[in-house]
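Hello,

Our lab assistant flagged a job as stuck in the queue for most of the afternoon. It eventually completed. Since we weren't sure the result was trustworthy after the delay, we are filing this so someone can double-check. Below is the sequence as submitted and the structure that was eventually returned. Let us know if re-running is recommended.
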Amino acid sequence: MHTDKPQPCFFKCKAAQAPRIIAWLSDITLEFAQKAPDHLKAQAALVSSCVWGLATYFQVLREGSRFLSTPEIVQLEEAGTVFLNSYSELARKHVGTPFWHIVPKFHQFHHLVLDAVEDKCNPHFFTCFGDEDMVGQMLKVARAGHASTVVDCALVN
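-- returned structure --
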């Protein structure tokens, strides 16, 4: 974050760990945005708001019950909108670089937020969008049965 020639970094973790990493990054990027040199302040603030939006989205989902209250819906909509708008602006500013690629999952994310606002259902309970980690859990269960046939038996049936 604090270099003139930043390099992309990749976190190799299960999807279930993403909320913890995003919360940590939110704290770090906020602190950096407050202390950034003048020539980096605007971009640092944009990155910080982007990461804050995603961290807050995860927080609302984890703390909410199956059906979200009106204040939770307002917070979820604000967080999702801030994340998507900030990320889009970062992508626009960095066209042609290895940073800030917009992926198809963002479209699904947008619909999760819109649907949650409309029906007040917590996506954490009613979608499998954030549960990619369950594939890993299923493989562990399948391996426990018979390690040599995990792909043939567990994923084909």
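-- support follow-up --
The delay was a queue issue, not a problem with the job. The result is valid. The radius of gyration is 18 Å. The mean pLDDT is 82.
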